[in-house]
Amino acid sequence: MHLCLFASGTGSNVEAIWAAIDRGELAARPALLVTNRSDAPVLDRARSRGIPAEVLAASDYSSGEAYEKALADALTAHGVDFIGLAGYLKKIPAGIVDEYGGRIVNIHPALLPAFGGPGMYGLNVHRAVLERGVRWTGATIHFVDHDYDSGPIILQKPVPVYQDDTPERLAARVLAVEHQLYPEALQLFAEGRVQLQGRRVWIDPSIP
Ligand code: GRF
């Protein structure tokens, strides 16, 4: 698996994935990091590990087509065959989603299909969870399709909501779970254990 990660911010999930590769728990090569922000802290993580990184923002291109081509060229140049979005706040161009169909996934800090969709990112998600009063939230790894947070679900892990939670405390507990779940999900792909059948994902052999 020649893995490209897309991230816009801190990149703690990116770090967790690369650390899992270092420990031999994820059979992947960190081929490329793509970010849309030249000041994203995740860039420093790539630099300190010597992992190739590209800053590619749609606003730097004259057209959507030119931006999509730049992205596609970067992915090809680095031999990318699998994409993981980890806190990437921009929509992936449709042509890239089509090209990498079944090989592009995202992590979301709630139990989809609840608390997903446009505007549901960062602390907004955890505020909405607390306002709605659900007892459980969690993390979801899902395929990327043409809408926000709507692709078939691959793995989920629940996190309890405590009475005295704040959005920040809840975010931190969910994030800790994300750091385990994302490398685990990617390793399932590396082992060829994930099959998509319609909107259902089959993992062979099944995991609890
Ligand atoms: C995570 O909560 C992830 O689920 C969401 O964005 C956040 C990124 O955090 N998509 P980090 O940059 O990996 O620390």
Report a brief summary of the structure.
It is built from six helices and nine strands; from the N terminus they run βαβαβαβαβαββαββ.
Spatial order of the strands forming the largest sheet: 3-2-1-4-5-6-7
Average pLDDT works out at 97
Q: What is the distance, rounded to the nearest whole angstrom, between the alpha carbons of the first and last residues?
A: 24 Å
Query: How many distinct beta strands?
Result: 9
Please give the share of residues in helix. Answer: 25-40%
Indicate the overall shape.
globular
Q: Which structural class is indicated by helix and strand composition? A: alpha/beta
Low-confidence stretches: none
Bound molecules: 5-O-phosphono-beta-D-ribofuranosylamine
Compressed to H and E, one letter per element, the order equals EHEHEHEHEHEEHEE
Q: Biggest β-sheet, characterized? A: 7 strands, mixed
> In percent terms, what proportion of residues is strand?
15-25%
Description:
- The structure is a single chain.
- With 208 residues, the protein is α/β, with parallel strands linked by helices.
- Helix content is 35%, strand content 23%.
- It contains 6 helices and 9 strands; from the N terminus they run βαβαβαβαβαββαββ.
- The strands form 2 sheets. It has a 7-stranded mixed beta sheet with strand order 3-2-1-4-5-6-7, covered by helices on one side. A two-stranded antiparallel ribbon has the order 8-9.
- Helix 1 links the parallel strand 1 and strand 2.
- Helix 5 packs across helix 6.
- The chain is globular.
- The relative contact order is 0.15.
- The structure holds 5-O-phosphono-beta-D-ribofuranosylamine.
- 5-O-phosphono-beta-D-ribofuranosylamine (GRF) binds next to helix 1, strand 5 and helix 6.
